[in-house]
Design a protein that fits this description.
Layout lengths: L4 H13 L1 H34 L18 H10 L1 H5 L2 H17 L1 E4 L7 H14 L13 E5 L3 E3 L4 E3 L1 E4 L4 E5 H9 L7 H15 L7 H18 L2 H9 L11 H14 L1 H7 L1 H10 L8
Parallel strand pairs: 1-2, 2-6
Antiparallel strand pairs: 3-4, 5-6
Length: about 300
């Protein structure tokens, strides 16, 4: 590390004038260097751990100060979001914190004059929080807006009516509230619009992230590659997926739709998924670091 000569002269002159202050400055400098060294040592060790031992971060949750929902807001989760009720103790507190952080950093916009109320914010934020709950870096980089319509809407992106979409140019998830709610009213039909569009946002965000700097992106992209390899190198396995009747046909439109549908099935019917397609189930569970009850 090269230290500017001017800084050395400054310290030397300061030592002559006030050795106490110069000693404090030097000590603080050593402290900063130690912090940087510890940070890079941690990144190096975690990189080895992820690459050679387990495809997950050394730790997931660390917060200096936890934010929490009020009683009414938590009530929305308890009544309408089954995943929250599966979490135990401190994990519910962590989940609340992440829901609060999501709401703080993402703009919610009513697309056709629809009111953006507490229920819409909490359930939408909870969907994104659920899918990234196994990640330490849980912010989805290419997402800063949620646009909600009351029903199907006309999309200027591809000039047709939609129930939902992820618009990477505007960094926005757009969806029909009617269809979003339907995804949670029928828990085991493997149709969940919110999950589907959030997975698209994650997919595009993590593909555009430097994997060496983000263990979450590394996990996700590694999972994508393993699933692609599993399907493309085994024609019988791909045919089994297409004919089993478990995954809807839309999954085989392209790689983006495939991953979104796989995660929908994984979240909604994990027991069936695990029995029918254990190899893919394992990869999805690992790429989301989904080590929670029921999965």
């Amino acid at each position: 590390m090269n230290i500017p000569l001017s800084f050395i002269f400054f310290i030397s002159s300061l030592q002559e004038e006030d050795p106490v202050i110069s000693g404090l400055i030097i000590s603080f400098g050593y402290f900063l260097v130690a912090i940087f060294l510890l940070f890079f040592a941690f990144k190096f060790i975690e990189g080895i751990y992820v690459d050679f031992f387990a495809k997950k971060p050394l730790f997931t949750h660390f917060y200096l100060r936890l934010k929490s929902l009020n009683e009414k807001e938590e009530g929305v989760l308890k009544r309408q979001f089954p995943f929250y009720n599966k979490l135990k103790g401190r994990h519910q507190k962590y989940f609340q914190h992440r829901v609060c952080r999501f709401i703080d950093r993402v703009d919610f916009i009513g697309g056709d004059g629809i009111e953006i109320n507490e229920e819409k914010r909490i359930l939408t934020a909870a969907t994104g929080t659920m899918l990234t709950f196994g990640f330490r870096n849980y912010h989805i980089q290419h997402l800063n807006k949620i646009i909600i319509y009351s029903d199907e809407y006309y999309s200027n992106l591809n000039k047709t009516y939609h129930k939902g979409e992820f618009n990477p140019g505007h960094k926005a998830i757009v969806f029909s509230w009617k269809d979003f709610k339907h995804g949670y009213e029928k828990e085991e039909d493997n149709l969940n619009l919110g999950i589907h569009e959030f997975v698209h946002a994650m997919h595009i965000s993590y593909l555009g992230t430097n994997k060496g700097n983000d263990v979450s992106a590394n996990m996700f992209v590694y999972g994508l590659e393993k699933i692609k390899e599993l399907i493309e190198t085994n024609e019988c396995y791909e045919n089994k997926m297409k004919t089993a009747g478990y995954f809807r046909d839309y999954a085989f439109t392209n790689q983006f739709e495939l991953i979104a549908v796989l995660v929908e099935n994984f979240i909604e019917t994990p027991s069936i998924f695990k029995v029918e397609f254990p190899e893919i189930y394992k990869e999805i569970r690992q790429m989301l670091n989904f080590d929670f009850a029921g999965y």
